[in-house]
Amino acid sequence: MPGTDDRCGFVPDGSEVADKGVTCCWRPVWADREHCIWHASIGEKSWELLEPHASSLGDRLDGAKLRGASLSRTDLFAGCTLIGADFTGATCIETDFSGADLRWTEFNDCNLTGANYAHATLEDTTFVRADLRDADFRRARLYRTVFADAHVNSQTAFDKELVYETRMRNATDAGTKTELGEAAAWTYRRLDRLLRQNAVAKRRHRFYTRAHDVRRRLAWVNDNYLKALKLEGSRWVMRYGVSPWRVLAVSGLLVLVSAFLYPLTGGIQETAGQTTLTYTIEEPTSPVLWHVSRTYVKSLYFSVVTYATLGYGDIQPVGLWARFLAGLETILGSLLIAILVFVLTRSVE
């Protein structure tokens, strides 16, 4: 809708945001400019200049031109709609953007230290070379948000569980779950990359594992059982590749279970010179305690040697099932050792 002589008439491109549509600014023109103060192409604006023209709650400031503006420590934008606004080069230290709709907005080359984006909608927003140290992004919507060469620190606040995952958990429709899950997984991966680039290693592992958790649940929702089982195995064995302690715990469990089963599946046989001793428990509820103890000590030793594929040859499994168990433990032991090396290498990198 075109403006009149005393009205702004600025029509931003709102075609990307279907739920908002296109709006026409009907604010009075500012001074002798063609548009209102929000859409006028002038030099650096300040919050003192903008404050008398502040937007009321629910009003739209789509396409606002705030390049290079000095907007630190102001709450002018809290709860506002600024779709497609341009904050390039602006200084917004500790500025309150909480609850604002900032889709398709540009925060490139901005100083946003301590800025508050809690509950804001930042989908398709760009933060290129932006300083986001100490900023607050809790409960913000960050799907398709671009963080390129952005700076964060350990005090930059992100949710442990993104709003998309929370909504996915409460959704009942499979299509809705898939849509929200894909948004959550994408955002977790983006945050993982952002924190990795800024050497915030401890927190980035959380986002890495949550992305895989969401993908695992999506696989079950979409009946992709092969992928779901693969991710379940990765989760329990190595926490998706970030936990060497979990690999060690699974390895220890394999050794102990195998040691318990060897005497029950045919036993093991030890050769010392001309003497051959067989360790087995034919009736597990009745043998003498010392015999049981000795048998399981030998079995534990054999299980450790078999897991590590050392192959000393002093003790051998007896019977088909004990040999099958030994072969299986050898294969799983080799696999777990390889996984442990992979996880340790990845953690160092």
TrEMBL record:
SUPFAM superfamilies for this protein: Pentapeptide repeat-like, Voltage-gated potassium channels
Pfam (any one): Ion_trans_2
Keywords assigned: Membrane, Transmembrane, Transmembrane helix
Gene3D superfamilies documented for this protein: 1.10.287.70, E3 ubiquitin-protein ligase SopA (2.160.20.80)
Database matches in InterPro entries: 5peptide_repeat, K_chnl_dom, Pentapeptide-BTB/POZ_domain
Highest taxon of the lineage: Archaea
Name assigned to this protein: Pentapeptide repeat-containing protein
Organism expressing this protein natively: Halorientalis brevis
